[in-house]
Write a structure and sequence with these properties.
The complex is a heterodimer of chains A (210) and B (169). Chain A has one domain: Rossmann fold. With 210 residues, chain A is of the alpha/beta class. The longest helix of chain A is centred in the N-terminal third of the chain and has 17 residues. In chain A, helix 1 crosses helix 2 and helix 2 packs parallel to helix 3. In chain A, the strands form two sheets. Chain A has a seven-stranded mixed sheet. In chain A, strands 7-6-10 form a three-stranded antiparallel sheet. In chain A, 25% of the residues lie in helices and 19% in strands. Chain B is α+β, with helices and mostly antiparallel strands and 169 residues long. Chain B has one domain. Helix content of chain B is 40%, strand content 22%. Chain B has a three-stranded antiparallel sheet with strand order 1-2-3. Chain B is elongated and about 85 Å long. Classes of the chains: A alpha/beta (210), B alpha+beta (169). At the A-B interface, loops of A face strand 1 of B.
Chain lengths: 210, 169
């Protein structure tokens, strides 16, 4: 909050219950159909530093007392001030304590294993990671496809346009396998594009296909 | 309370804290009357009025350990008068009770007070009367309390002539 004036902040949901319910519905759909891009109704003024889809998701899910971890380029931005103002959540520098993580882009994706994985009794206490995907990055060549299988997917699904380099995707898939081995513990991921959300629950298997 | 200012706050912040405290105590009728020209247009809500509970903390004698005195109903809101780049000032209000209208009017007044061009006018027409009213209320309360004042004085014990009342031994 320190560097951002209140006068620069945008409004929250125009109707708090309807807005958050609609976003929650989208989030459920995204997790029910992993890999499928889901549109999100934007009835709020999103901060400049992040995508509207990730902002809306966190605006709906966070509550006072929730601990949010921010990737370095989101710290002290209007996004941080906006989310704390509207939800009353706390920003934490400790990854393993965070209930949610907001990650600006691939470069800043930390090791998933450093987040809270929950416990065997309470696997729902794990961190939910929201990763903003850049709108269009010319430097990254056409990324390899991620092929998804698992609950909620009839045959297989693919995720395109993650705008990550092969190395980044490879490392992510390796980490995701590791995330799988600790089942039922493990993190869940939302990819946020400029149009909507893609859910990646911990039950989904990923394969990298070139 | 009104005169207290935190040394960590800048002067503008403490000035704002003082007028926010005044607005929270201002009578609704006065706010309605003074702010009437500014409440025609719908505000741009940053946070619509919401009522909740706040824990009030106190210290025994003003200096003891902090303890929870009890919860209090508070209504708060934040708004912009319009969303044009000219009027980016955000007015906020925290008001005791559950009157959304009071919170709204106090936030409108706060946003206007942040604007240099109308600050002086509003200081005269709104803040000064509220200050006077609160001072008058305080005096009236003190006067009422004064009527029940009892002067205690020590009654000198009668000198013990006989020396056998059992008190001295």
């Amino acid at each position: 909050m320190s560097n951002v004036e209140l006068s620069d902040l945008g409004a929250g949901f125009s109707d708090m219950s309807l807005g958050s319910q609609s976003v929650f519905r989208s989030a459920l759909e995204a997790l029910s159909y992993p890999g499928r891009p889901v549109q999100l109704a934007v009835t709020f003024e999103a901060p400049k530093a992040a995508h509207a889809s990730s902002s809306g998701l966190l605006l709906a899910l966070l509550e006072p007392g929730s601990l949010l971890w921010l990737s370095p380029s989101l710290v002290n931005t209007d996004a941080a001030a906006w989310i704390t103002f509207h939800t009353g959540c706390k920003i934490t520098p400790a990854q393993h304590q965070a209930d949610f993580a907001w990650i600006k882009n691939w470069d800043e994706l930390p090791l998933l294993a450093n987040f809270s994985l929950g416990t065997d009794e309470y696997p729902d206490h794990s961190t939910t990671c929201v990763i903003d995907i850049a709108t269009q990055d010319t430097s990254a060549t056409r990324a390899p496809l991620l092929t998804l299988t698992g609950p909620g997917i009839a045959q297989s699904a693919t995720i395109e346009q993650l705008f990550a380099t092969s190395a980044q995707l490879k490392s992510f898939v390796e980490q995701w396998h590791q995330n799988h081995t600790s089942f039922p513990r493990g993190v869940d991921v939302f990819f946020a594009t400029h149009t909507g959300l893609i859910g990646l629950p911990r039950t989904t298997h990923i394969q990298l296909s070139v | 309370m009104l005169q207290q200012s935190d040394s960590r706050l800048s002067t503008t912040q403490s000035a704002r804290a003082q007028w926010l405290a005044l607005l929270a105590r201002a009578p609704l009728t006065l706010l309605e009357q003074v702010l009437q020209p500014h409440t025609q247009a719908a505000p741009h809500w940053l946070r619509k009025p919401e009522t909740g509970l706040m824990m009030v903390q106190a210290r025994t004698g003003g200096s003891g350990e902090r303890f929870n005195l009890g919860e209090m109903t508070v209504t708060r809101c934040a708004l912009r008068l319009s969303n044009t780049p000219v009027h980016r000032n955000v007015g906020i209000a925290y008001v005791v009770g559950r009157s959304h209208r009071h919170a709204y009017l106090a936030a409108v007044a706060d946003a206007l007070l942040l604007d240099e061009s109308v600050h002086r006018e509003l200081e005269r027409s709104l803040l000064a009367p509220v200050r006077e009213l609160l001072a008058a209320n305080k005096l009236a309360r003190q006067a009422r309390a004064k009527t029940s004042k009892v002067d205690f004085f020590t009654v000198a014990r009668e000198s013990n002539v006989d020396g056998d009342d059992g008190e001295t031994s």
